[in-house]
């Protein structure tokens, strides 16, 4: 009986370890083109400490961020949340209603 419990415990530990998957390193600098056209480059920076900024049209928006599995959440100071998708190709897709779709590509770790 004790051997069966030990085997079960080891199996559950292995299953838990396999289901967690590798941590993604999302921190870094990302660039995207303005979806409205033009040559403007947008900068998204995610810092290791969970803070970040989005620079667009001479404005800098500060936020905190978190990795929520397949999503990345950007929390504004006013309490709003912008959800994006962290993709396997090291890019982040963010769709904003009435603004456009942004595909930020990682340019610097």
SS element count, helices: 1
Total number of strands: 8
CATH class: Mainly Beta
How much β-strand is present in the residues?
over 45%
What's the CATH architecture name? Beta Barrel
Q: What is the helix fraction of residues, given as a range?
A: 10-25%
Q: In sequence order, what are the helices and strands, one letter per element? A: HEEEEEEEE
CATH fold label: Lipocalin
The spatial strand order of the largest sheet comes to: 1-2-3-4-5-6-7-8
Which structural category fits the helices and strands? alpha+beta
Task: Briefly summarize what is shown.
The chain contains 1 helix and 8 strands, in the order αββββββββ. By secondary structure, the protein is α+β, with helices and mostly antiparallel strands.
Can you offer a commentary on this structure?
It is a single chain. This protein has 109 residues and is an alpha+beta fold. Helix content is 17%, strand content 50%. The chain has one helix at 2-20; strands at 28-33, 41-46, 51-56, 59-68, 71-76, 81-86, 91-96, 100-108. An 8-stranded antiparallel β-barrel has the order 1-2-3-4-5-6-7-8. The protein starts with a helix and ends with a strand. Residues 1-23 have low confidence and may be disordered.
């Amino acid at each position: 009986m004790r051997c069966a419990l030990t085997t079960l415990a080891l199996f559950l530990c292995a299953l838990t370890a396999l289901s967690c998957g590798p941590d993604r390193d999302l921190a870094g600098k990302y660039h995207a083109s303005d979806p409205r056209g033009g040559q403007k480059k947008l900068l998204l920076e995610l810092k290791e400490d969970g803070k970040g900024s989005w620079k667009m049209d001479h404005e800098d928006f500060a936020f905190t961020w978190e990795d929520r599995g397949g999503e990345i959440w950007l929390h504004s100071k006013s309490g709003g949340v912008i959800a994006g998708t962290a993709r396997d190709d090291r890019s982040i897709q963010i769709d904003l209603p009435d603004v456009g779709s942004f595909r930020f590509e990682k340019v610097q770790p």
